[in-house]
Amino acid sequence: MRVIHITTSDMSLRYLLLDQLRYLQAEGHEVTAVSGPGPWVEAVRAAGIPVKTVPLTRRIAPFQDLGAFGALAWHLLRTRPDVVHTHTPKASLLGQWAAALVRVRRRVHTIHGLYFPGHMRPERRWLYVWLERLQMAPAHVILSQNAEDLETVRRDHIADPRRLRYLGNGIDLARFQPDGASVKSRAATRAAIGVPDGDLVVGMVGRLVREKGYPELFEAARLVLRERPDTTFISIGGEEPAKGDCVELDDPALVALGDRMKMLGHRDDVEDLYAAMDLLVLPSHREGFPRAPMEAAATGIPVVATDVRGCRDVVVDGETGLLVPVRDPERLAAAILRILGDDRLRARMGVAGRALAEERFDQRAVFQRVADAYRESPPAS
Questions:
Q1: Helix (H, G, I), strand (E, B) or coil at 295
Q2: How far apart (Å, rounded) are the C-alpha atoms in residues 240 and 238?
Q3: Potential cystine with 7: which of 20, 87, 273, 291 (Cβ 3.0-4.6 Å)?
Q4: Which residues have a Cβ under 8 Å from the Cβ of 353 and sit 6 or more positions away?
Q5: How many CB atoms are closer than 10 A to CB 85?
Q6: What is the pTM of this model?
């Protein structure tokens, strides 16, 4: 089939979807992609996936969005794909309706995480529910990365239950392995990022936005360092200056941690950095089905994450890590200290995490469900 994947950001193409696109291509589909312009477009093209850029943006920009809608409709009209597959809310809203307008016969959408968290106030929540209904309305098949979102979609009548499928999420298990780094290379990685000899390393992987839980992490780090000054925290993730909740590098809570919190920015060697960690934390306020805890688990690293949907799919509380309440730095610090203070517990959780990853997080099974959805999609009426 001729398949076009549409996403708002080229970063999503490069870091969330590229392996999936290449898998579908290897299965014999003619796969292309559409996204907003950006620095990762050429990397996706170099990997063998043609990319068309249109003026998609995450911001609310009505005139630009109208232009993006027209560009999408024209592109789909010219290319006549068999399948349009959308990702992220803005790309879904514009891409699904553009595909419906030009009568693409199979329209698929993946929910990477409903945009409204479970704790959102009802007076705000209704608007997000309505927007989710609007963006998903044209889709023939709706795939959800986590099961809780499927239940929410059913309960809130966001989409016809007959169109819903569970997808899951996965990673490249061959890339992230417990024995992926030797003792020598682990020590070299730590030295390269300035970790003192003998320190325990707590890692965080996530974009520099507040909803990822950075304010809670900074406060938890302060509390942990009171009891365990032999701890180094590292953060891996790019800055997001255009986001309203961006984390500034001159944030007083961050500056107060000094060299005990190392902000490494965007990195492509995350497998080496996981191998240098003793523990991963993800104090996020909202998630779909996060990759970082899966990657850590596959590497044999325990995880402390917030007890929110998505994280609950990745962390088995008490077995592969610990779940803590959202926006609770004291409980976050206590969980970190518990795991750092017990070598046997860390080792046991690491072994259990790898077993869980092998059982549930193999991306090849997820990609096959996507391919199956293309065959199952009913024709447009």
A1: helix
A2: 7
A3: 87
A4: 296, 297, 298, 300, 301, 302, 303, 320, 321
A5: 33
A6: 0.90
Q: Residue 376's pLDDT is what? A: 79
- Give me the CATH topology for the region 183-360: Rossmann fold (3.40.50)
Residue reference for tokens 């707590």: 202
Dig out the tokens for 188 from the structure: 């070299």
Strand ranges (E), the chain:
2-6, 30-35, 51-53, 83-87, 106-111, 141-144, 164-166, 200-205, 231-236, 261-265, 279-282, 303-306, 321-324
Of 256, 280, 288, the residue nearest 332 (C-alpha) = 280
Q: What counts of helices (H) and strands (E) characterise the chain?
A: 16, 13
List of residues 6+ apart from 89 with CB closer than 8 A: 8, 115, 131, 132, 135
Angle at 100 between CA 98 and CA 101, to 5 degrees: 65
| CATH number of this structure's domain 2-170+363-376, picked from the four choices 3.30.300.30, 3.40.50.300, 3.40.50.2000, 3.30.470.10 | 3.40.50.2000
State the pLDDT at residue 223: 98
Residue position matching structure tokens 């409709």: 73
